[in-house]
Specification:
single chain; alpha+beta; 60s Ribosomal Protein L30, Chain: A; 5-stranded mixed β-sheet
């Protein structure tokens, strides 16, 4: 269970994120300022604060920005798509994780958006790269799928 001092208190009975092996999976974050716990209502600033809060949780689990594999974004309105993309691109500075962005309508606390990340711990990412060098048949997709299956169904049998 991960808890980040740089993220606002969870508004429900869940942790900021979970680390399982080399994988870090965050809970959804809405645009709450971690210092004041106030809702951010301007979409560009809301996107920036959500991504920053998520990265704080990722770093608490040993991850880093360029190890983010996927971001799920739920928005109140797709009319904000262009502004969200602008803030998203500036935040990731050339790193392009996979992304889902859907209009969800009813988001907790009437927030403009909510997002979550899946990433790898820093050491795990290095180990993954070393494994790829040793065995060219291992791809990042196969490794990620294996981690996901272990997470969903438990440790693999030997």
């Amino acid at each position: 269970m991960l808890k980040s001092a740089g993220s606002p208190q969870a508004i429900g009975p869940y942790s900021h994120g979970t680390k399982y092996g080399d994988s870090i999976i965050t809970s959804g974050q809405i645009p709450l300022d971690p210092k004041t716990n106030e809702m951010i209502t301007e979409i560009k600033q809301a996107t920036q604060i959500v991504l920053s809060n998520l990265l704080s949780t990722v770093k608490a689990g040993g991850g880093r920005l360029n190890a983010v594999a996927k971001v799920d974004v739920f928005v109140k309105s797709l009319d904000d798509f262009a502004v969200i993309n602008e803030a998203y691109s500036a935040f990731f500075r050339g790193h392009k994780p996979a992304r889902v962005l859907v209009e969800a309508g009813n988001i907790p606390a009437d927030a403009l958006l909510e997002a979550a990340m899946i990433t790898f711990a820093a050491n795990g990412n290095r180990q993954s790269l070393q494994a790829k060098k040793k065995n060219r048949t291992v791809t990042a997709r196969m490794w990620f799928r294996r981690q996901y299956l272990i997470l969903m169904y438990g440790e693999e049998e030997t």
